Amino acid sequence: MPVHLFPLLFVVAAISGWIDAVAGSGGLLQLPVLLLLGGALPVSTLLGTNKLPATIGKTFAALTYARRHPVDRAVAIRGGLAAVAGSAGGALLALGVSTAFLRPVILVALVLVAAFILARPRFGAGSATPDQPAQHATKVVKRRRITALALLVATVIGFYDGLVGPGTGTFLIIAFTRLLNLEFVQVLPTVTWINVGTNLGALVMFAALGHVLWILGLGMALNSVVGAVIGARMTLSHGSKFVRVVLIIVVTCTALRLAADQLGWKIG
After folding, report:
1. pLDDT exceeds 90 at position 131
2. For the chain, does the N or the C end have fewer beta carbons within 10 angstroms?
3. Of the candidates 76, 26, 79, the residue with the CA atom closest to the CA atom of residue 51
4. 147: number of Cβ within 10 Å
5. Are 258 and 107 in contact (CB under 8 A)?
């Protein structure tokens, strides 16, 4: 790839990092630009390079969130490891399988997500419902059930991220906000670590097979960190309503792009 295109990709990485930190799905911008400017480079190499700034940017966003809100360590660690495994498997499959058949399914899922957010104005914006008095054993069983579901969700979405990618962060935010019954801002510290896992698993797989442009990827990563930290700080300052608005915009843009691709319209 010509060196004179690097500055443009660095700017794109910063904007993508901001989107990723606030509402997920920064790849909606970053990956299409990489594919557009990649020329004759293999798609697998561009996919692998895309995962490097995504992983590092997400890591710094997670660290920023963790300074202000507690992380559910059991869910974050176990879910993150499950996401790594799922993502690596998805990336391996993506190297040899066309994923075009998944586009209509993803489109429908995103439309349903947008409808869900719009239909429930308080979702992710209100405080978690206080726990009612219960026996310790009951709470332990409930906690184990939540952790098991978190592992399943992290594995499935991680596999999806390695295989396809669009909307991964958004799907994680919606799923874990529902699962943990928290505000968007409260769930982001935990979810962002899991999203690190979905990116890391794919990155490791692509890197092991030689499909990462390290100089370009690291340069993009530095800019992605700047965007991610700014996005995380803005989220902490403006709260869950800000996340809700950005989520709706990101979901809508992702759905429109997938619809355009499905209809054969070239928009980048």
Report:
1. no
2. C
3. 26
4. 16
5. yes
